[in-house]
Amino acid sequence: MEDHIFKLEMKVRDYECDLQGVVNNSVYQNYLEHTRHEYLKSIKIDFADLTERGIILMVKRVEIDYQRPLKSGDKFVSVLRMERISPLRFGFVQSIYRLPDEKLMIKALVIGTSVNKRGRPELPEELIKIWGLE
Amino acid sequence: MEDHIFKLEMKVRDYECDLQGVVNNSVYQNYLEHTRHEYLKSIKIDFADLTERGIILMVKRVEIDYQRPLKSGDKFVSVLRMERISPLRFGFVQSIYRLPDEKLMIKALVIGTSVNKRGRPELPEELIKIWGLE
Amino acid sequence: MEDHIFKLEMKVRDYECDLQGVVNNSVYQNYLEHTRHEYLKSIKIDFADLTERGIILMVKRVEIDYQRPLKSGDKFVSVLRMERISPLRFGFVQSIYRLPDEKLMIKALVIGTSVNKRGRPELPEELIKIWGLE
Amino acid sequence: MEDHIFKLEMKVRDYECDLQGVVNNSVYQNYLEHTRHEYLKSIKIDFADLTERGIILMVKRVEIDYQRPLKSGDKFVSVLRMERISPLRFGFVQSIYRLPDEKLMIKALVIGTSVNKRGRPELPEELIKIWGLE
What we know:
homotetramer, Thiol Ester Dehydrase, Chain A, 23% helix
């Protein structure tokens, strides 16, 4: 399993599986989002709280490579690390590994930015401090 | 609106919107998938039927660029065209435009392949014929 | 098909189907909610707008009888009528029929109420006027 | 917290919240289903496995009373007990309590039955043995 600064263990729920008997492709975005938000909370950044303050963290681009499908009952671990993309853009490098065999299921790059109430790009101070994005 | 071979009009449903008051990022994958499946049906390829025959159309990679968010009540059109990626891979070039102003909301490239019951890559004849993928 | 004051035609999307190859039970609540919100818009009540004004329409109770399952590709019509439950509670009597054979798929009773910013029950004037709930 | 034979702790994920900032009503059905399936696995009944064997456990009726809404970040426990409804119907009596204050969020009665490949009611032996439904 690659380097990461945060990980979260989860388990497939049957309602997340589709006609093909595997987790539907769109559900991985739910897993990835939940992992990012839990990571942000772990560094004291609350997504719902930011939203109330008028700061919108936005996803600008998502790239997902699907390697193997998760199935009903599978346990997995979702890991994350940060990558600087540009002064106003930050990248979450994310992967999901099945447990216990640690096979890679998907890997993803999620590029985000942040806008204020007037729709202007503005990174919250907390993020600048933590990620060193200046 | 760019060139396309298929289009589908839809409307945002409130349960698809999240805390930020906009359509959740993962929901666009639902829109994109529904568009692909409706397109496949329109050329007489039934996704559920293929699944029963043991042929699995699989998404290998998704790239989505988020330009503007859809909101509660928005109508939109989801358009699609095909692009050859490699002998065993086909690409769906997809975009979603808000209606009636036709502003681009997202654009996506979804790369798919097809495997048979033994997990081997095998494109169904129908697809080869239609897309000229040989 | 029974008496109704509003109807909405929809079509099953493959991602709404689960391991059993039918629409997942929880998805019917999405269909029912979307029908209610579209009905409310049709009588000029905007759910997202009410939410912004601090008036929360809340579901207090849901009863759903599942008769037959919808499957991939099925078209259906979702119908609705109102029923007075009590001074502060209103009932949506809802059913979903498959098309074109009009077989009953589910029927439901959804009981709602409305609270203001202080969490107190308060029906918006529009609703009192329209539904004669006084 | 009432009597129960099974409980499962979970946490709200932000994508489960809607425009109103609370968990969308339909999502509770996901929580309830996941709890039932995990309970069935805990007594060695695998829902996906039954489906493959042609035995379909079906929900016939759902009643949910919504007491208080779960919000972003809330932890909760979902509890379950069985109730005999009739020779061919079994009831899951389910509740969800917020943690750590154990306030009741929803309570539900989910009535199920079971059919075989020919669509006839047939309870799998495992269930008859475990639940004493004869």
